[in-house]
Design goal:
It is a single chain. With about 170 residues, this protein is mainly alpha-helical. The protein has six helices and two strands; from the N terminus they run αααααββα. The protein has a two-stranded antiparallel ribbon with strand order 1-2. Helix 4 packs across helix 5. The chain is flat, with a radius of gyration of 21 Å.
């Protein structure tokens, strides 16, 4: 399972470690991540097939495959997409566009989470979905939305200027 989960991350690094990566490569940058995800899932399936014994508990193989698929697709697949986001290039850019994209993603998400938490804790009175998540409120959701917009303004304003990305956007 460990080898299968590391394949997407390793495959995402291929364009990074390839010294003169061709711009017209038919695989593209995201194609390496997709190939790594497919290979990781194939490793998980083959590994479960090899370890299968006919007297195993019913459903054990399905549970193991579900865990392996989750770790491969969700954990390592998303990490591979973050790596691809960091490697993003725009023609004529200073090379910092990928860093701006990655930092803006992190800023918007973290500002939204923090705003929702604090506004919901301080002013939250009206439950959003009490049966699914009893701590969430409509006020917190609105606070998270406003904080996310502030995070986006910070990312695309002062941060973009500091990285010198406005010329290439």
């Amino acid at each position: 399972m460990i080898a299968g989960t590391l394949l997407p991350i390793g495959a995402s690094c291929v364009p990074l470690v390839w010294q003169s990566y061709p711009t017209d490569c038919p695989v593209g940058r995201l194609g390496w991540l997709a190939a790594g995800l497919i290979a990781g899932l194939a490793v998980a399936v083959v590994s479960e097939m090899r370890s299968f014994a006919g007297d195993d508990q019913p459903g054990k193989i399905t549970t193991n495959l579900a865990f392996a698929s989750f770790s491969t697709l969700y954990l390592c697949g998303l990490f591979g997409f973050l790596l691809q986001l960091r490697l993003l290039q725009v023609e004529g850019s200073t090379g910092h566009v990928g860093m701006l994209a990655l930092l803006s993603l992190l800023l918007v998400v973290k500002f939204g989470d923090t705003g929702a938490y604090f506004v919901g804790r301080i002013w939250g009175r009206h439950k959003l979905a009490p049966r699914l998540s009893p701590g969430k409120t409509w006020e917190g959701a609105l606070g998270g939305l406003v904080a996310s917009v502030i995070g986006a303004l910070v990312a695309l304003g002062p941060l973009a200027n500091a990285l010198g990305c406005w010329e290439s956007i």
